[in-house]
Amino acid sequence: MTRRHLAAVPSLSLALLLALLLLAGCASPGEKQAAAPAGSTITLGFSAWPGWFPWQVAGEQGLFRKNGVDVELKYFDSYTDSLNALATGTIDANSQTLNDTLASVAGGAKQSVVLVNDNSSGNDQIIAGPGISSPAELKGRTVAAEQGTVDHYLLLLALRKAGLTEADVQFRPMPTDAAAAAFVAGQVDAVGVFAPFTTTALKRKGSRAIATSADFPGAIPDHLVVTRDLVSRDPKAVQGLVSAWFDALTWIGEHRPEALQIMAKRAGVSVSDYESYDKGTTIFTLERNRTAFSGELDGRAKEIADFLVSSKLVDRAPPLEGLFAPQFVRAVQP
User: Fold this and answer.
1) Is residue 141 classed exposed, middle or buried when 0-12, 13-18 and 19+ CB atoms within 10 A define those classes?
2) Rounded Cα gap, residues 43 and 237, in angstroms
3) In angstroms, how far is CA 123 from the centroid of its own chain?
4) Are 301 and 98 in contact (CB under 8 A)?
5) Nearest to 65 by CA among 233, 255, 241
6) How far apart are CA 228 and CA 62, in angstroms?
7) What is d(CA 314, CA 307) in angstroms, rounded to the nearest whole number?
8) Residue 233 pairs with which residues in a beta bridge?
9) Looking at the whole model, is its pTM more than 0.90?
């Protein structure tokens, strides 16, 4: 199970490239895929991250139907697969990080951010074993993380702050779940993981988080991202998705015990474990969304884009024109 993939070096991931080749192979020469008509079922993808499980609540409580949109929720065990599905048009919408969206756009995908789900404020962590108390002490050590994920990005941020680069550590790329298991088994000295895999990693005796997303406020924002095709052909459906999200947050606030059961079940963890993730995920209210879309996100996107280029995680800076579509959160009735 993976989350929050930053895009494989140098641009689109290998998996995405293969998917694109497969799509091309299935089409006849000159054939163009027809866009689904307005009013059709919208496929919304999400994966393992505390800030995205409210979508499960929206689905189970009929909040999409309430807002006039027919939605098929598609849960991805692999976050990378969800990114590739959106980039290739297999799904219409997906919850993903701004980092990943920028990387996809840099590779040619046409996507728009229409909602801020949350900011990671501690649930992405660099966890080290006994004897390591700071990122500076990672020099010469083995560090595992899923290459191209935001936890790889967090590692690079933490190393840079400590005056180091990836060349100063022995980086071992592996899937997030495998990385957490390898760390617990003592096969690597440190690991970059996100919740709920932080819980797994911290089972190693003497382990501790030496850097988290809380140390880099706003560096890892999460969003509802849709294809620009959907924005143009069915804006009412996009509005329905956005409005359903805020209805879900309201329902969760009014029925918290039941909501926690729904979200913990989807996450595959206990309710108590799920509640422990609350402090590490800052859910954005409607007001906070509107503030973010009033210029804050533009500055954050430029900062992330510059970092992706300087760290050689993408070949070139993504075009930012059309990236943000603020009209949908502005139209939500409080």
Assistant:
1) middle
2) 11
3) 12
4) yes
5) 241
6) 26
7) 9
8) none
9) no
- pLDDT range class, residue 38, cuts 50, 70, 90: low
One-letter identity of residue 294: S
Tokens of 12: 């689109």
Angle at which helix 14-26 crosses helix 79-87, to 10 degrees, equals 40
Where in 31-120 does DSSP place strands (E)? 42-47, 71-76, 93-97, 111-120
User: What Rg, from alpha-carbon coordinates, does the chain have?
Assistant: 19
DSSP 240-299: HHHHHHHHHHHHHHHSHHHHHHHHHHHHTS-HHHHHHTGGGEEE--HHHHHHIIIIIHHH
Domains of the chain by start residue, with CATH: 14-20+38-119+219-331 (3.40.190.10), 124-215 (3.40.190.10)
Model confidence pLDDT, tens digit, residues 90-136: 999 999 999 899 999 999 999 999 999 999 999 999 999 999 999 99
- 132's tokens: 């390591």
Reference 240, options 111, 59, 82, 76; nearest CA is: 59
What is the C-alpha separation between 86 and 92, in angstroms, rounded?
6
How confident is the model over 276-298, as a mean pLDDT? 93
At 161, list the tokens: 């702050």
